[in-house]
Write a structure and sequence with these properties.
heterodimer, A: about 300 residues, mainly alpha, MetI-like fold, 13 helices, about 0% strand, flat, B: about 350 residues, alpha+beta, Rossmann fold, OB fold (Dihydrolipoamide Acetyltransferase, E2P), 2 domains, 6-stranded mixed sheet, 5-stranded antiparallel sheet, 8 helices, about 25% helix, binds adenosine-5'-diphosphate, binds magnesium ion
Chain lengths: ~300, ~350
């Protein structure tokens, strides 16, 4: 008898402990959600009211009725003091810029990491350290000389001028180098015996093995590109090349005139969508790339 | 199918000399096993033949043709690696077909060759799987399949069975031997396992510290090991090596431990009285019996039909014996040394001394 009571008591205790653990987990998750989601919720709600509601200083927590009008205005005509660039154009610019930066960075760092890891050439480590040292210099530090170079090349106010200086990436090169170092030598040797030259080996073996890393890096770099602010602000004056991040800040006035918060919020929601889409679309790969190295 | 000739192959990595001059002649269709302790340069030698390393000096000839400066792909060799080295993102079929695809073979021929090899190895039902969905033994079969489809002049195996469990190893060992005989491809097989070496090789190359200590058939090596290293390496348990001196006239040796006189059954050895010798006796040649060695047995390992006895001689020299039956106990006993199964080595150089030599 006493054995069974002990067993039920034990089971009860286990159940209680599991319940407690669940509560703690969920409280943490809820707190996280509140902190992260609340500002976005405010933006969403703000984009559905008319200009006066927010202008009065109210912070509405329930949706209003002006959503369609606000989003149409933001998409087509733009908003704010200057009646700025339409969100559609800015989104297209941001998208092209972010895609070019992400793809360009990945292409450049894949090839340079491949060279550093798989080939023996004179001064190999010197080149590696040169790449590595550029990590120490953030964009802001080299922004004036870079600007001068772009002016000399006549690339101001062009998409190329916007993208090219942001493409070189020591971080991505470093990440790919670390990953390539984990590829066993035997694959290289098996490929040599199979008769695969360096380019075939890169395409047939190294690229497929790097898939998850490439996907993870693509997400990170896309968002990095999307959020670029200082460089686009400097290099582009042409309204038709304005990116959404720059455009948004320009929409917010300095206080001498009422901000059209409803349109700004609607534009902000537009600006959120592509990065969210990329993350959602690539999520499976993204998580895989961050957590496991496929061997 | 081809012959392979190695001429005085030397290799150093910087200041470390790994190979000190290896010569070898392999006839068409022969299976040569390179065996030796870990780090003695077996893999390096194999990789030089494959073209994955470049020899510091010497020459590799395949089918009579010098391989100097030739890339691995141009040597027409196939290699099976210890950890299989199957491309993880390719299916079994793609793995086996990859080398053929690069060589530009037509699709239907690739299909035909892969199917044939897969049938030979019993992996026909696995062709669409990825390597990670296979067991170790299946992966090893695929790795062999990848070598077979190439129909190369030379198979190179670098410890292909080391990552498998004991039972599978025995199974695959026999299979490799059958396949190699059937296909008749000249092969080099590297292993550190002397049983694998004995069972697989037409001839063995016993390597010791970058040199070929002996190149001969398994039985020849077992019966007439060229030096004490080979004697101790081949055979399990290892041969007992006992210090002794030559008797005046050279007709017998006197054991240092206990002063036992061992007459040479096959004739006298040259040298002055007192020449330092090492007498080798295999554990399985010792027999219980009077008038032999006094041994203090410390451990008996019953193996069923026979037992392995570990003991010490009077002066502390360890001695191992493998005796029939299972009726042995610890304690003092006497073991007889049949004089016809003794091996005589030089006490200084460790080289074998034949009768009259
Ligand atoms: N690339 C290399 N650089 C330096 N030393 C090496 C290299 N490859 C092998 N060695 C050395 O050569 C010796 C023999 O290696 P290896 O041929 O792999 O031995 P085995 O296959 O017999 O175990 C080892 O001492 C090893 O450290
Ligand atoms: Mg090895």
């Amino acid at each position: 008898m006493s054995v069974t009571t002990d067993a039920t008591a034990l089971a009860e205790r286990t159940r209680r402990r599991q319940f407690r653990e669940k509560i703690v987990t969920h409280v943490c998750l809820l707190a996280g959600i509140l902190i992260f989601v609340f500002p976005i919720y405010l933006t969403l709600i703000g984009s559905t009211h008319d200009v006066n509601t927010i202008g009065r200083g109210d912070v509405p927590l329930l949706p209003g009725a002006e959503a369609v009008a606000n989003y149409t205005q933001a998409w087509g005509a733009g908003g704010g003091r200057y009646m700025g660039t339409p969100a559609g154009t800015m989104l297209a610019n941001s998208l092209i810029m972010a895609l070019c930066i992400a793809v360009g960075k990945i292409a450049i760092s894949l090839t340079s990491a491949y060279a550093v890891v798989f080939f023996r050439f004179p001064l190999r480590m010197v080149f590696f350290w040169l790449i590595f040292i550029t990590l120490m210099l953030p964009v802001e530090v080299r922004i004036i000389p870079t600007f001068q170079v772009m002016v000399d090349l006549g690339l101001t106010n062009t998409m190329a001028g916007l993208v090219i200086p942001l493409i070189a990436s020591a971080t991505a090169t470093l990440l790919f180098r670390q990953f390539f170092l984990t590829i066993p030598d035997e694959y290289v040797e098996a490929a040599k015996i199979d008769g695969a030259g360096p380019i075939r080996f890169f395409i047939d073996v190294v690229l497929p093995l790097s898939r998850t890393n490439i996907a993870a890096l693509f997400v990170i770099l896309f968002i990095y590109g999307w959020n670029q602010y200082l460089w686009p602000l400097l290099i582009v004056n042409d309204r038709s090349l304005e990116t959404v991040v720059v455009g948004l800040t320009k929409m917010i006035g300095t206080g001498d005139q009422q901000n059209e918060w409803n349109v700004i919020m609607a534009t902000a929601v537009f600006a959120l969508l592509p990065p969210v889409a990329v993350v959602v679309f690539m999520q499976r790969w993204f998580v895989k790339g961050l957590t496991e190295t496929e061997k | 199918m081809a012959t392979l000739t190695l001429r005085d192959i030397k290799k150093s990595f910087g200041a470390t000399h790994v190979l000190h001059g290896v010569d070898l002649d392999v006839t068409d269709g022969e299976m040569i096993v390179i065996v030796g302790a870990s780090g003695c340069g077996k893999s390096t030698l194999l990789r030089i033949v494959a073209g994955l390393e470049t020899e510091t000096s010497g020459e590799v000839l395949i089918a009579g043709q010098s391989m100097k400066g030739l890339e691995p792909a141009d040597r027409d060799v196939a290699m099976v690696f210890q950890n299989y080295a199957l491309y993880p993102h390719m299916s079994v079929f793609q793995n086996m077909a990859y080398g053929l695809k690069i060589r530009g073979l037509p699709k239907d021929q690739i299909q035909h060759r892969v199917d044939e090899a897969a049938g030979l190895l019993g992996i026909g039902h696995l062709l669409q799987r990825k390597p990670r969905e296979l067991s170790g033994g299946q992966r090893q079969r695929v790795a062999m399949g990848r070598a077979i489809v190439r129909e190369p002049k030379l198979f190179l195996f670098d410890e292909p069975l080391s990552n498998l469990d004991a039972k599978l190893r025995v199974e695959l060992r026999a299979e490799i031997r059958r396949l190699q005989r059937r296909l008749g491809v000249t092969s080099l097989f590297v292993t550190h396992d002397q049983v694998e070496a004995m069972t697989l090789g037409d001839r063995l190359v016993v390597m010791n510290a970058g040199r070929a200590a002996q190149i001969a058939t398994p039985m020849e090596i077992w019966e007439r090991p060229a030096d004490t290293y080979v004697a101790g390496f081949i055979g399990s348990p290892s041969m007992n090596l006992l210090h002794a001196t030559l008797e005046a006239g050279g007709a017998a040796a006197i054991l240092d431990a206990g002063g036992l006189r061992l007459p040479f059954a096959d004739g006298p050895r040259a040298g002055a009285a007192g020449r330092k010798l090492i007498i080798g006796i295999r554990p399985e040649h010792l027999r219980p019996g009077q008038g032999g060695l006094d041994v203090m047995v410390e451990l008996v390992e019953p193996l069923g039909g026979e037992s392995v006895l570990h003991g010490k001689l009077a002066d502390g020299t360890p001695l191992t014996a493998r005796l029939p039956g299972a009726r042995y106990e610890d304690g003092a006993t006497q073991l007889a040394l049949p004089t016809e199964s003794l091996h005589v080595f030089d006490g200084e150089t460790g080289k074998r001394i034949e009768a009259g030599g």
